[in-house]
Design a protein that fits this description.
The chain is α/β, with parallel strands linked by helices. The protein has 15 helices and nine strands. Strand 4 and strand 5 form a beta hairpin.
């Protein structure tokens, strides 16, 4: 039994209606910001549900993933996506370029725009290129940016977000928005930094939680299991739903566990027991991974990570309370800001990428699973974890 994409047409249609201004009391035309944890189906939904639907509705839709290649700057990733779309529409673009005052658009071998200079001082602005595509194709545009929070880690990425905000504003017409932005991220706190202050590019917008795959996804696999394995026909849906929750609503892990449990079972009762074992094992694997990583840190790195997990958005790395906390946790008389900075750098460069930092100096845990791991150990009165 393999992982299959589970379409969510109702959710996609609802978001499309919001983007196209068909829903009352929605601000989505000014930008839609969706936060969903890693491996919970967010990217599949954007690429396989929302993007095709928008294209069917005659919206020119461009998808980019800012984390697909961490070595490329966010601006470069968007440039490359626009290069492809411009090439795909060269004929239509040629007809309107001169009317827009763009006599030379330097695509090598064509007539045109030097696409390598999009967004740079010597080239066309992002707004000019997007506006050109809008007028040439006679279609509104939607730019879907996955893992948008990565833009906050560099000057170039920050400039990209401001350029897109400017283009969005300039491409509003009396008939509606001609540039719609969908930005997703795997961490709510990080994504919120795009809009949580007057100095943020999308100040005034809101982050909403990406709906997780739910009962309908589980029911599809219950039906598939009963069809392929009649001897498991009495498997209870409630047990499957509970197991999916234990897997953190991560479809790939859940489906793989169903396959292993089914292979080891000859009746429904045995299957349910095996699936429960699989879900418990996965939970422990996740927790053990975090514990092993934590125990490999220096005492100061452990203290900084703990404070970041507990304080979350209120985290201040170098204030007096933080320094006192680090000193108490490490049994030192004093901890300096320089020492803390070194610890933060080590956490950011850790193989597990434990800490994320924005261009403006805001910090967040890289993997939100750390928060659940810490909460579990606190509940069990086993925090902090000790070496065996």
């Amino acid at each position: 039994m393999s992982t299959h994409h589970h379409p969510r047409p109702t959710l996609a249609q609802g978001i499309a209606d919001e983007l196209m201004g068909k829903t009352s009391f929605s601000d989505a035309q000014n930008g839609l910001f969706l936060a969903g944890e890693r491996r919970t189906g967010k990217t599949d939904f954007l690429r396989l549900d929302l993007q095709p639907l928008l294209q069917d509705l005659s919206v020119l839709t461009i998808y980019v993933d800012l984390m697909a290649n961490k070595n490329q700057s966010p601006m470069t990733v968007v440039q490359q996506a626009l290069q492809q779309v411009v090439h795909d529409n060269l004929g239509a673009i040629a007809k309107v370029a001169k009317s827009m005052g763009l006599e030379k658009i330097g695509v090598p071998g064509a007539f045109g725009i030097d696409l390598r200079s999009i967004g740079k001082t010597e080239g066309l602005s992002l707004h000019q290129v997007l506006d050109l595509l809008n007028k040439a194709t006679k279609k509104p545009l939607t730019l879907i940016i996955d893992e948008a929070q990565h833009a906050l880690t560099s000057d170039e990425g920050d400039a990209l977000m401001w350029a897109l905000k400017s283009a969005r504003d300039q491409m509003k017409t009396s008939t509606g928005a001609q540039l719609m932005l969908v930005m997703s991220g795997s961490h709510t706190d990080k994504l919120t930094m795009l809009l949580n202050s007057p100095s943020a590019p999308f100040w005034g917008s809101q982050v909403r939680a990406m709906p997780k795959l739910g009962d309908d996804f589980v029911q599809a696999y219950v039906a598939l299991l009963r069809r392929e394995r009649p001897e498991l026909a009495t498997v209870r849906s409630s047990e499957m739903v509970q197991a999916f929750e234990h897997f953190g609503h991560r479809p790939q892990l859940f489906v793989e566990a169903i396959g292993r449990a089914a292979a080891a079972s000859n009746d429904a009762q045995a299957f349910e027991a095996a699936l429960l074992v699989e879900s418990s094992r996965q939970t422990q694997v996740d927790r053990d991974r975090f514990t092993t990583t934590y125990l490999a840190l220096t005492p100061l790195e452990q203290a900084v990570l703990e404070r970041l997990i507990v304080e979350s958005k209120a985290f201040r790395a170098f204030d007096a309370k933080a320094l006192a906390f680090y000193a108490q946790r490490t049994a030192q008389a004093k901890v300096t800001a320089v020492q803390v900075q070194r610890a933060i750098d080590a956490l950011r460069n850790n193989d597990e990428e434990l800490v994320w930092k924005s261009l403006r100096g805001d910090y967040a845990v890289y993997d939100q699973g750390l928060i659940g791991w810490h909460a579990h150990l606190v509940t069990q009165h086993t925090w902090p974890p000790k070496s065996a």
